[in-house]
Write a structure and sequence with these properties.
Largest interface: A-B, 46 and 36 residues
Helix content of chain B: 25-40%
Low-confidence stretches of chain B: 363-396
Helix content of chain A: 10-25%
Strand content of chain A: 25-35%
Strand content of chain B: 15-25%
Radius of gyration of chain B: 36 Å
Mean pLDDT of chain B: 82
Distance between the termini of chain B: 62 Å
Main location (chain B): cytoplasm
GO molecular function (chain B): mRNA 3'-UTR AU-rich region binding
Shape of chain B: flat
Strand order of the largest sheet of chain A: 7-8-9-11-10
Subcellular location (chain B): Cytoplasm; Nucleus, Nucleolus
Low-confidence stretches of chain A: 1-18, 33-59
Order of helices and strands of chain B: HEEEEHEEHEEEEEEHEEHHEEHHH
Number of strands of chain B: 16
Number of helices of chain A: 7
Structural class of chain A: alpha+beta
Oligomer: heterodimer
Protein name (chain B): Exosome complex component RRP45
Keywords (chain B): Cytoplasm, Exosome, Nucleus, RNA-binding, rRNA processing
Largest sheet of chain A: 5 strands, mixed, barrel
Radius of gyration of chain A: 21 Å
Chain lengths: 255, 402
């Protein structure tokens, strides 16, 4: 056993727990295999793009996108590749913001930024019955969750969780503003204890909805305040932490 | 693919912001976005950026026979293309209403204003004239394609040089750039489009609307003008009734904007000319702004260093005492010396196990890496046998450097 371990060459990046390894497409992710992480588990966690094209490769994973290899030891361990993209691909369980494009019989059609519109049943709202329909107009914003998101199939959304509660999902109010950022930035903003959000929340009170499809809805007290949040979040894509802090300090001074 | 629809809340917010005289990007009502002109390595190729709207223009030329009703005039051809690369809602190869109207507007702005001297493009009357072709491609759509395309078009035409020709009797000679310097087109003036968007039935007026502002606007007015304040084209569309005062006000704004833009274009052309003359760097690669995506950047994490000393002491206490090392070189024979004590060679063992592995795993890339190591090992062994080197762990470590 010991000999077997000695024979295998150590990957050049080592096997520390915290590594941000840059992966390129078709690179053989040997380490993920070595840690005994099944392909299904490693596949697609939080925008993961480590796709197992690896059935053919006997074991191990083949990376199909370039990005940083990330690892989370907690919860059974997960590997994913953080990559930069703007086009959203629906994933089951993701919370997204959709725009209602049509009311077709008993389902709504929602634009979620994917290749296909998603469908949303009018019964998939909290407290909705055949009598009591939700008041949804074309052009409204809806925050929901993907129930079905398969390849080559129309994705299906719901605005309730498994116990029938809305838990924050549903129709988003008429005010506020919607804008789009890259998917990488959204993941960063949704990370627990995100510094950007914490710093922004000290400026003034505002409401914020982040969809995994890159859409952000913001509502502050005035138009000016909303615009400030929008511009800061858009600029965060290219700002370093120091630049952001300077910008925020300037704003809080001006206020 | 369908374009992303505009939600009700965006529409309401935009209209409210316009009422409060605020724009998304913090501009004033009559402000243009930043205009950036960059030139390609070739003549007659440029990219114009108007905020996030980005347009590529390329001019090319060809000798053709003239139109029968205009035997002494060159031919001008303009083509604007909208590809789905610019915005998902745009379709390729389809003559959409937007594309036709933009093409027509560009044609009116550049051809009908007679800014290019077509007579100078004639080589042999009735037989050979130059055809100048301007291709404009939209690379990214963030509103106001008209202005960006008209700026890109006129800049590319100003930047372009056509090959020199000479006519001797019947014979037409086209010179390569090495033989004779290519000649610029003769351009009388530079017409530039300025777009205005009207909101709330013409109560509010914005210059250089973005894509979202274009979606909520009621009316649209384009004025093409040159820096001598001569209006070349004027076009109004949408469902708004304009009063004469509005148009007069717009033309006054346009006059100011056109002067500014013309100055900027001329400066960009001069800079490029200077760079080319002095043999400096030019082309698109030189003018790409540097932007770094910071979304994946990890902040440097603070590490607790309070008990580092104790930890280090513990490690030292637990570790095996270091082996005795002879650092004195020992002269064995003439030309052969030994530094340190050689430890047991582990290469042979490894080689053996490697063979096993090579047998079971074929075509793996690691095998190739081992192959290389094997060769190295053999080399070392051979040299040892010859008595040139004494095999020691120093050699293994230092092998790549020896």
């Amino acid at each position: 056993m010991r000999r077997r371990a000695a024979r295998r060459p150590r990957p050049w990046w080592g096997s520390g727990a915290a590594r941000d390894l840059l992966l390129l497409p078709a690179q053989y992710d040997e380490d993920a295999e070595g840690d005994g992480c099944g392909s299904a588990r490693a596949e697609r966690r939080r925008g993961a793009a480590v796709r197992a094209g690896a059935a053919a490769l006997r074991a191990g994973l083949l990376v199909t996108k370039c990005g940083l290899l990330r690892h989370r030891p907690a919860g059974g361990g997960a590997f994913w590749v953080d990559s930069q993209q703007k086009r959203y691909v629906p994933v089951k369980g993701d919370h997204v913001i959709g725009i209602v494009t049509a009311k077709a019989g008993d389902v709504f059609r929602l634009d979620v930024g994917g290749s296909e519109p998603a469908s949303l049943s009018y019964l998939a709202f909290e407290g909705a019955t055949k009598r009591n329909r939700p008041n949804v107009q074309v052009g409204d914003l809806i925050y929901g969750q993907f129930l079905v998101a398969n390849k080559d199939m129309e994705p299906e959304m719901v605005c309730i969780d498994s116990s029938g509660k809305s838990s924050g999902m549903g129709i988003i109010g008429q005010d506020g503003f919607l804008f789009k950022v890259s998917l990488g930035l959204i993941r960063k903003l949704l990370a627990p204890k995100c510094e950007i959000i914490q710093e922004l929340s000290q400026l003034y009170p505002f409401e914020l909805v982040l969809g995994m499809n890159g859409r952000i809805w913001v509502k502050a007290k005035t138009v000016q305040q909303t615009l400030i949040i929008v511009n800061i979040l858009e600029a965060c894509e290219y700002m370093s932490a120091e630049q952001r802090k300077q910008a925020l300090a300037k704003l809080s001074g001006n206020r | 693919m369908k374009a992303t629809p505009l939600s009700n809340c965006e529409r309401r917010f935009l209209l409210r912001a316009i009422q409060e005289k605020k724009r998304l990007d913090g501009r004033q009502c009559y402000d243009y976005r930043n205009i950036r002109v960059s030139f390609g390595a070739e003549r007659g190729c440029c990219i114009v950026e108007l905020g996030r709207t980005r347009v590529l223009a390329q001019v090319s030329c060809e000798l053709v026979s003239p139109k029968p009703n205009r035997p002494t005039e060159g031919v001008l051809f303009f083509n604007l293309e909208l590809s789905p690369m610019a915005a998902p809602g745009l379709e390729p190869g389809r003559q959409s209403e937007l594309l036709v109207s933009l093409n027509r507007l560009l044609e009116r702005c550049l051809r009908d204003s007679k800014c290019i001297d077509t007579e100078s493009l004639c080589v042999v009357a009735g037989e050979k004239v130059w055809q100048i072709r301007l291709d404009v491609h939209l690379l990214n759509h963030d509103g106001n394609i008209t202005d960006a395309a008209s700026i890109a078009g006129i800049v590319a035409l100003c930047h372009f040089r056509r090959p020199d020709v000479s006519v001797q009797g019947e014979e037409v000679t086209v010179y390569t750039p090495e033989e004779r310097d290519p000649v610029p087109l003769s351009i009388h003036h530079m017409p530039i489009c300025v777009s205005f968007a009207f909101f709330h039935q013409g109560t509010y007026l914005l210059v250089d609307p973005t894509e979202r502002e274009e979606r909520v606007m009621d009316g649209f007015l384009v004025i093409a003008m040159n820096k001598h304040h001569e209006i070349c084209t004027i076009q109004s569309s949408g469902v708004v009734m304009l009063v004469p005062d509005q148009i007069l006000r717009c033309s006054k704004i346009a006059a100011v904007k056109v002067t500014e833009i013309t100055e900027q274009i001329q400066k960009a052309l001069e800079n490029d000319q200077k760079a080319r003359k002095e043999g400096g760097k030019f082309g698109f690669a030189e003018s790409i702004p540097f932007q770094r995506i910071t979304a994946f950047k990890m902040e440097s994490a603070a590490v607790d260093t309070n008990d580092v000393e104790e930890q280090a002491k513990e490690i030292i206490a637990k570790a095996d005492p270091p082996a005795e090392v002879f650092s004195k070189p020992v002269l064995l024979a003439a030309g052969t010396a030994q530094i340190g004590e050689g430890v047991e060679n582990s290469w042979g063992d490894l080689e053996e196990s490697e063979k096993e592995e090579a047998a079971e795993e074929e075509g793996e890339s690691e095998a190739a890496a081992f192959e290389c190591q094997k060769v190295e090992t053999e080399d070392t062994m051979r040299e040892t046998k010859n008595g040139k080197y004494c095999f020691s762990w120093y050699h293994i470590l230092l092998y790549p450097f020896l």
